[in-house]
Amino acid sequence: MAVQTLKSNAFIFDLDGTLIDTTPQVIKFWTDIAVEHNIDPAKILETSHGRRTIETLQRWVPELATIEHVNELEGKLALEKDGVIVLPGVMNLLQSVSAKDWTVNTAGTNVMATTRLLQFNIQVPAKMATGDMLTHGKPHPEGYLKAAEILDKKPSECLVFEDAPSGVQAAIAAGMQCIACTTTHTVEQLKAAGATVIVDRLNSVDIVGNEDGSYTTTIKNAYDL
Questions:
Q1: Residues paired with 3 in a beta bridge
Q2: How many other CB atoms sit within 10 Å of the CB of residue 173?
Q3: Strands 158-162 and 177-181
Q4: What is the rounded distance in angstroms from the CA atom of residue 31 to the CA atom of residue 92?
Q5: Which terms does the record give in the GO molecular function aspect (predicted)?
Q6: Which strands form 2-8's sheet, in the order they lie side by side?
Q7: Is the bond preceding 139 in cis, omega lying within 30 degrees of 0?
Q8: d(CA 30, CA 7)
Q9: Which of 14, 21, 101, 132 is catalytic?
Q10: How many of the other CB atoms lie within 10 Å of CB of 126?
Q11: Tens of pLDDT along 78-122?
Q12: What long-range pairs does 174-183 form, CB within 8 A, spacing at least 24?
């Protein structure tokens, strides 16, 4: 494992699996839907992470795939906190970055993202790129391009933090650098998706602001790619 450094002017974070881990809840959420509709839960779980709920429903249970139903499902899920944690290193990273220089791009709805951040006293960005405001989910780059627009930065100025191959692919397709965490997927999967750097958790990452307004990100214990 090696130490690497990256330069950027802004940061875009995926939410679930990157900032916050809701894995037990997500597994139960999709398993319950699968069992109710006589679908193998493993098949849904293999394809759901990092993708918008409405897209997963369209594939497996199309009769449930309405914006109203998704908002209802995610609104209820967001209120459940059992087993949900902030991942290691996240709070230190966010405290190292000016509030105007970071935002979130998530497959979840704005209600879901806002509720999750507030549950852990994380300042909610003024604007986020959330699944309910996008036409295309990851691996399409729309969400990351929208996030760069929110930050008023060029895509090449943004550094992304992700955990899912579809998210990594979206970030790279948007023309951004991407640090991927192995929270939910293997090094091999994240490498195949094109991640710039891969670490186990964000407590291996430090961000320092520079006098010119840019940032230097130092990654310890990065996997050799």
A1: none
A2: 17
A3: parallel
A4: 34
A5: sugar-phosphatase activity
A6: 2-8, 215-222, 205-209
A7: yes
A8: 38
A9: 14
A10: 9
A11: 777 888 899 999 999 999 999 999 999 998 889 889 999 999 999
A12: 174/141, 174/144, 174/145, 174/148, 175/141, 176/12, 176/144, 176/148, 177/6, 177/8, 179/6, 179/205, 179/217, 179/219, 181/17, 181/18, 181/87, 183/17, 183/18, 183/21, 183/23, 183/87
Residue reference for tokens 């509720």? 115
Q: Which of 122, 137, 177 minimizes the C-alpha distance to 53?
A: 137
- pLDDT tens digits for range 145-201: 999 999 999 999 999 999 999 999 999 999 999 999 999 899 999 999 999 999 999
**Catalytic (active site) residue 14:** yes
Which residues, at least 6 apart from 139, have a Cβ–Cβ distance to it below 8 Å? 165, 166, 167, 169, 170, 173
d(CA 217, CA 92): 13
Q: 73 and 150 in contact (C-beta within 8 Å)?
A: no
The domains located in the chain, with CATH, are 2-21+84-222 (3.40.50.1000), 23-78 (1.10.150.240)
Pairing label, strands 2-8, 129-130: unpaired
pTM of the model: 0.85
C-alpha count within 13 angstroms, C-beta hemisphere, residue 137: 21
Q: By three-state DSSP, how is residue 113 classified? A: helix
Strands 85-86 and 20-21: antiparallel
CA 46 vs. chain centroid, Å, equals 17
